[in-house]
Design a protein that fits this description.
- This protein is α/β, with parallel strands linked by helices.
- The protein has three domains: about 70 residues, no CATH class; about 40 residues, no CATH class; about 90 residues, 2-Layer Sandwich (Nucleotidyltransferase, domain 5), CATH 3.30.420.
- It contains ten helices and five strands; from the N terminus they run ααααααααβββαβαβ.
- It has a five-stranded mixed beta sheet with strand order 3-2-1-4-5, with helices on one face.
- The longest helix has 19 residues.
Amino acid sequence: MIGLFCFLLAVLGSPFKSKLRLEAENAVLRHQLIALRRRLHGRVRLTNQDRWFLIRLYRWFPSILQVLTIIRPETLVRWHRAGLRCYWRWKSRPLGGRPRIGPELRVLIRRMSIENPLWGAPRIHGELLKLGFAVAQSSVAKYMVKRRGPSSQGWRTFLRNHAPDTAAMDLFVVPTLGFDLLYAYIIVRLDRRELVWINVTPHPTAEWVARQITEAFPWNGAPRYMIRDRDRIYGAVVTRRLRAMGIRDKPTAPASP
């Protein structure tokens, strides 16, 4: 009686369903009959093709859960979620790249870095290559023991500690009334902001800058440090002149103002 009542309700509601939905529900019912005919003894044994068919129809028409009889709707939803996990695990698989480093090699890298604190990544990488390990230097640096030493001093600390022995030089452009360009070169002492040297030229060269440094400081009055930017005019001639006068060259970072 209950089955007949359910049949009548399905017949009355069928005109309000779409044709594709009815075809999907009929396909699920026919497939369940085929699975039941394959049963030999005990419970129904569904193959992977059966699961794929039901999951695909469930994704297109979730209403087929109402006509499932040989499995519970929760089981079909669990299959669907398991299939999504397998799919995304397959999509996230590593596609080539560097081979993974074994735990023995990682332990060896850490041991070498601990027992040889003065060795850096290039030295350890070279020793591993001699031992027959094909590993990149970046991987060696990744698995080395990170030492927490005192942080290096910044520019503020450096200037506060060495301002009396530090000078700065710069080269900038000065436009004239006749629309010409003159290049002004200055040297300033940082302790009292004293202007040590200034000169102007229309055609600056590295030799000219080196000569200005020599004229600005006598041999016994040169500063210990010279701060400059990374202008290409400060070439090898300028750096050799600074080194000959006992001045340590301190170029600033490329992005610093």
